[in-house]
Amino acid sequence: MRPTHTEKENAMREKIIPELYANEYNKFIGFEVLELSATYSKARIKADSRLHNTYGSIHGGALLSFVDAMAGATGSMSGHYVTTVSANLNFLLPAVNTEYIYCECMKLKTGKHILVFDIRVTDDNGNLLDSGEFSFFASKAQVLGDNLKF
Description:
Layout: H1 7-22, H2 24-29, E1 31-36, E2 40-46, H3 60-76, E3 80-91, E4 100-110, E5 114-122, E6 128-142
Antiparallel strand pairs: 1-2, 2-4, 3-6, 4-5, 5-6
């Protein structure tokens, strides 16, 4: 059972999710946030033909940017906006024959400035399509503050 969300977590979620949905690129990818906290997130995108590569599966770049946006949102739930330091995504199986692609981000480490997340991308049947690890730098810009300097 996951812990109950605090008032601060709820306030950050209420700010971060609309920011994600307002971004034009994120609108194009078309993802939906299912769960968002500082330690875990889950989201999905529709396996839309606009995101297909030449071979008929979801393009790796679309998957990478979907995962990067969700892992970044998860990192920002720590209280400060984050920027990607490194992104590693292993493409294990093609994303085909599924209505949705799911991304789960699980916190591995939160340091003073660096946050690291384990990534799992699955299809409707729970098959592991991609796995990886993303690292982020926590900026000085606070999610709930007026300080937007990175």
